[in-house]
Amino acid sequence: MTSVTDPTRPSAEERRREQRAWYFYDWANSAFATTVAGVLFGPYLIAVAEEAATGTPARVDVLGLAVAPGSLPAFTITVSTLLSAVLLPLLGAVADRTERKKDLLAGFAWAGALASLGLFFTTGDDWQLGAVSFIVANLCFGAAAVFNDALLCLIADEDERDRVSSRGWAFGYAGGGLLLALNFVVVSFHDAFGLDQALAVRLSMLSATLWWAGFTLIPFLRLRHHPVVDLEPVEGGVVRRSFGQLAGTLKDIRHYPVTLTFLAAYLFFNDGIQTVIGQAAVYGEEELGFETGTVLATYLLVQVVAVGGALAFGRAAERYGAKPVVLAGLVVWSGIVTAALFLPAGALVPFLLLGAAIGVVLGGTQALARSWFSLLVPRGKEAEYFSFYHAMERGTSWLGTLVFGIVYQLTDSYRPAVFALIVFFVVGGLLLTRVDTARGIADAQRGHPAAARG
């Protein structure tokens, strides 16, 4: 595919320069996604909540509801995502009416890092501080991702996006894996550093916060402002104008049936992916009985394999197209959650093999979904459409975590909770088979396909 000539588009050299800077936000935010959200937050919040739990079976009081400590991380992510579903579309509308997308990206990233500092101060039985800190940090994480992914449409032409998106994910897994390796040493050998395990975990989460905030400086300083294009005229101040644009999009989105179908598919399969990622550490420690250090090492393996997986999926998409490659990835994801149902407790080699399989498909499916969706977005509404996309995205998924938490609440076992996620991959895959990419691209380029077809 080739891009339509547009004098407002940056040159190839300008795009490459911005793409290199853009990769660094994936490098920055992956520290929070891996060290905090992926590995340490869930088990640590459970441990803190268990100190506060009472009764038989042990439960903590959450707004009058008796909740098992083991379900608390999943429900915490669910709350964060419900808030995202309300706030992110509005933020996307605001972003599309300003050229300062990189400023909003950095602002939300730094706000999220500031909120995540509360995790360092979560000690004793104060699980409420940890839950609230994570909810706010995760909400800001999703908001920053809206602006980051909207920038992909501005710094890469259509035929570059699979490659650029895949490299961004690979860069992210490399950065997140590097910090995770350092934190693996700190947590696994905490005695040698004169630390107890709880303090080692808190310091590791603090390091991810500082990493996220620090490396965000690179895209903030090196990306440029891009002029606003192709917006519908609406009246009033920025908030009123943004609500007006959002209302217009909700009205007109029915004219983009391919985009809607893709979003519905993404809602399902990405919720499944994010729930597996978010609950893998809890499953490894609580169900299989592995130590925190072992789970960290396995997650590090996932990160290393995911770098190659993201790049390999990008190359495969260039040859076969994104659709068949993503569908193949979903078949592998279905096999992963099925294997997790039968994985023996304490069996390290099968656990490592399962982690390697996750690494192969993790970065690839997410990277190609991002670049694929970017082709279905009408120009001038990149941030607004990506706000809908990110309301369903990693770390802000809610259907998967809700199902996971409810199944555990009913069974007191993480095995059926993990296996229940196969529904998300099957339904998402079936919906993806109905996505006509060529038609979706044509509709997005015309802007008003229903009117164009008469």
TrEMBL record:
Q: Give yes or no: UniProt keyword Transport.
A: yes
Q: Where is the Major facilitator superfamily (MFS) profile domain?
A: 258-454
Q: Out of the domains of life, which is the source?
A: Bacteria
GO CC terms for this protein? plasma membrane
Q: Could you tell me where this protein is found in the cell?
A: Cell membrane
Q: Which residues cross the membrane?
A: 21-46, 66-92, 104-123, 129-156, 168-187, 199-221, 260-282, 294-313, 325-345, 351-373, 394-411, 417-435
- Report keywords, A-Z: Membrane, Transmembrane, Transmembrane helix, Transport
Q: What is its main location?
A: membrane
Q: Which InterPro entries match?
A: Atg22-like (IPR024671), ATG22/LtaA_families (IPR050495), ClC (IPR001807), MFS_dom (IPR020846), MFS_trans_sf (IPR036259)
Provide the GO MF annotations for this entry: chloride transmembrane transporter activity
Q: What topology does it adopt in the membrane?
A: Multi-pass membrane protein
- Indicate whether Ribonucleoprotein appears among the record's keywords: no
Instruction: Look up the coiled coil feature and give its residue ranges.
Output: none
Q: Which PANTHER family match?
A: AUTOPHAGY-RELATED PROTEIN 22
- What name appears for this protein in its UniProt entry? UMF1 family MFS transporter
